[in-house]
Records
---
Amino acid sequence: MQQRDLRIGILGCGPIAQNAHLDAVRKARNAELYAICDAAPDLLERMRQIHAPRYAHSDYAAMLADPELDAVVIAVDDRYHAELAGQALAAGKHLLVEKPLAVSVEECEELRAQTAAAGLVVQVGNNRRFHPGWQDAKRFLDEEMGGVLAFSAWYHDSVHRYTLQDNLYPVPVVSDRARRPAEPWKEVRERYCLLTHASHLLDTARYFLGPITSVRAVHLEGGDQHSWTIEARFCNGVAGQLRLVVPAQADFEEGFQIYGEHGSIEGSAPLPWFQRARVECFKDGHYQRVLGEDGFTFKRQVEAFADTVLNGAPQQGATVEDGLATVRGLVAVSHAVVSGETVRLDEVTGPVVVPEKNRTAPAVPRRRRPVPVADCRSIDESSIGIFAKTFPRPSLEENATAVRNAGFSLVHFNMACAGLPSMPDEITAKTARTVRDTLNRHGIRMAGISATFNLIHPDPAQRRVGLRRLQVIASHAKAMGTSLVTLCTGTRDADDMWRGHGDNTTAEAWQDMRAGMEQAVAIAEQEGVFLGIEPEVANVVDSARAARTLLDELRTDRVKIICDPANILRPVDARDMRPKLEEFFDLLGDDIAMGHAKDVVFDGEQVTHCPAGTGSLDYATYLELFAQLAEPTPLIIHGLAEHEVSAARAHVQSRAARIRGSRDAYVRLVSAPAART
């Protein structure tokens, strides 16, 4: 007896149905295009003429009411997925839902519950799972390669994608009467790109390596181009890097690399309609590659779906659990971008969130607000970074490698690391891209970039040169991966901008500094960046009170504070540093955009700086206060030589670990008045 075909109805006759699902169902060996449904009558009629289903419906409920219909392909706007899938399940129909499964964690959870209650098959349309090369790579990974040591995956949409598609696809049929939600979904690009494109990327990662437990992510934007670099932690202990670029100045490509104990796999795939993917597995000195002559993944996913429904075959496609996990991952990535923190997938809810534009540094209230004890942040290892110039190397690539080998994924950058002067006269767009791409490739985030010059140099011509070079760096900062540009307020010493001078305390010096800062603020506003100034005893702004005065005078949210306790302590503070540190955070806590971590040694009236852990800085108080900041804030180790890095990092990490283990100091802080007199 010949087995019957699965009778499928396709909901939605728009672009993805025309380009993929209608042909896929018609060509599948075990499926029938039984019905189609669309609210636009002209579009529905044209698709009926082309594809000849048995039935064409303008009413979804009528299609679902047909007892002969077995399953539904949902190929409509993402925002309709949950509601329409729920209706199909209630009508007893199996489902193949275009990715993403839905647009929020809660919608996916509700669909999971409905699926379990109905006892039906729900498959998410992650079609790459059905490429023969992907499937052979999965077999090789499970059976031959041994433990995974490293994993990376990418999804690069192309600026030329639609030119290719327009030339190769049939002319699309469109309708003015198509039903769309009121909100223009694609205009919020960060959300649209994550849901539409990163859903493929995360599913590929999960297909090969299993569940993802946590993510960190950086989002960069250049014109209408967006990129995400994602550090993913998997349940099996592997740390992987995922990269999404939409659109890329390159050909379209999805791909992955996996390195294991006994072999490796490299796979790349162009647009799925036109060319086969190329996947090669390497073991014992030999490559093997599946031809994949049947690479129509949309058809193959329909065939697998039908086998599961008709014959009870194991589900090869993404399940409702996979769909939920992917949406959780997308929501977690969006939260990681906004917070700058590692985000666990099991802790997120809601939809993908979108960061406010230029949301890089905290807002500017006048005093530190106490944080409730339960909300005090711990300082995790991912927020502890290093001054990149600590590793002098002949090339940027070697510098980035040294940073990562030292255990850091966060840097305070200096253009000297890219082979230029710290304050160059010119930075090309190519150099900026190289900096960004090199750091991204190594999984390094840029917390800020140095643009330090003597703002009140005795020679006004020197000040003008410094401001001009500041603009050079500021104009490329965002392209390199940061919106925070750091500088100092200067000294009257003509030879050393880190050496104090008797004239720094004069009204004239303050006026010159104020005028220079106003010009710097104008540059920051023009370039859309923030300025980070560091109070230090050798400069005009030599204390927390002076910094507060400057912020109050400038009245701008473009100026933030770099907190380095070693730079504000004087010999009189040696016995008890806590009052000076508390004053700093009371006056400036809500303005701090970065912390520095070095140490200090007092010898009579002499104050000497040294690596963290080798002096007498009260790190317990410093990190207690730092953990109280309302926004996630980088903590950068600096002021040391390369051979001193390991010990300094261990010291800062151990002190931070103590903060994570005790809340007693937090109780004392939040019980005290917010402003001290």
---
Amino acid sequence: MSPETVPAVVVFAPVQRDAATLGQVIGEDGLRAETCADAASFYDALAGTPLFAVMTEEGVARCSLEDLSGILRRQPPWSDMPLLVLADADHRRIDNNRFVNLAEIGNVTLLTRPVARLSLVMALRSARRARQLQFAVRDQLAELANHAAQLASTVAERTRELQAEVAERRRAEQSLAEARRLESLGQLTGGIAHDFNNILQVVTGSETLLRMLLNPLPDQRVLRALQSIRRAADQGASLTQQLLAYARRQPLANVALDLRRQLHAVSDMMRHMLGPEVQLHLHIAPGLWPVLADPSQLDAALLNLAGNARDAMPHPGRLVLAARNRVLPDAALPEGAHLAGEFVEICVTDNGHGMSAETAQSAFEPFFTTKPFGQGTGLGLSQVYGFAVQSKGLAFIRREDSGTTVGILLPRSEEVLHAPAARPARTAHGIDGLHVLYVEDDPDVAEVTAIMLESLGASVTRADSADAAVRLDLSEVDAVLSDVMMPGELDGIGLARWLSAHHPRLPVVLTSGYVLEPERLQGLKVQFVRKPCAIAALADALIKALKHTVRN
């Protein structure tokens, strides 16, 4: 500690000669003396942080014991300031009780006068060393307090980080649990839809055969009954398609879409659905990227959203269909925080009554609906969710101040946009004379479908599994029609891959209402027909497969 920073020694000696002498001795010892003229200035100096204090008995006489006691008791915990008192050796002149009481409240050293110079210097040095030790303790306590504050700050910061980590982990666990729950629901609904599609295939096929057998129909009652069967089968097929969309178990015909053109086209259908009491506004950002998606499923998703919004809005209502480019992750779109890359965001926003948090959490579940009984299937939003996720995107619900926004994120397509190919003209007898190997494990579906193919002139060889089909002689077979979901080592997709390797010139058509892993169809040069399907759709698929094989 430099001399300039060493605190002064406070001196209170009312006798001028005593004050001068003490100041000289203190100065010669390298210290700085602060001489006080009266008790008030002495009190003020003591209230600071002096090195120590020296006073004569005349100074003691001019001080109040209570005032000194109060000042000394207000010292910080580390401080016990030394106080040197010089008094005459004549006991008759010393107030013994006063000095005894003073010693009880402070660190007092009593020196009798006359005092030898050396004794005074040694007493001053002793007081200085004691006080410097106290200052060292003060500095150490301050350093410890600083370390404690830093430690507390570090602990608080780490605690906040841990709390954030725990909260994030809980959110992740909840998201994982929700994803697993939705996946389980998807597997359940997909399995039900698969079995139901086979039933519907028998119904639609039998209805078609009845029309053929009864043609021309003489009785209008029979015709109306057949029409009712067809309508019911079509409704059932629509329901199963929505279930499979939620389960993400249907193959998508993904193509590069000009989204601006697609949205303008579907907006006409939306306006027709909404009616005159709901205004539809399009907000499509310029430079909209093309997306990779199934156009029919996109149209179905947007029409489902329009129907839900119409039912949720008062009349007149307002619906906004908006689209813009997004590069994720984007802080402005927290719902897509787990996605990365270039996407197009499509939002449908209504001005209806909105959703509660509980409703929004369950809205994507199949068969969940808040509509009165008989006014909704609860499959509209589940189809939207399944379509978006299977398209490698996302569907989300955002609660607005007034109304609800349902958004769909679809990945940007790098493919070149192509105009839709013209649909080939349907040929009623295009498969006449064709030898078809038909692979189907459900005997009822196999029987009805085989009869329909034979009614168009094709000859049919049946196999009840893909494993059985690969053991057959295929030299006389012109085309293979196979179900996808079958027991055994090979399913329909496995059979298609085996045929591609061993009979690459043999055209293949796959038909199913449920595909466990639709991505396995990628790269296969096959035609695909969704169950339940009409005989004309099967014939078209076989003709397309044959033409594709001839071109290659």
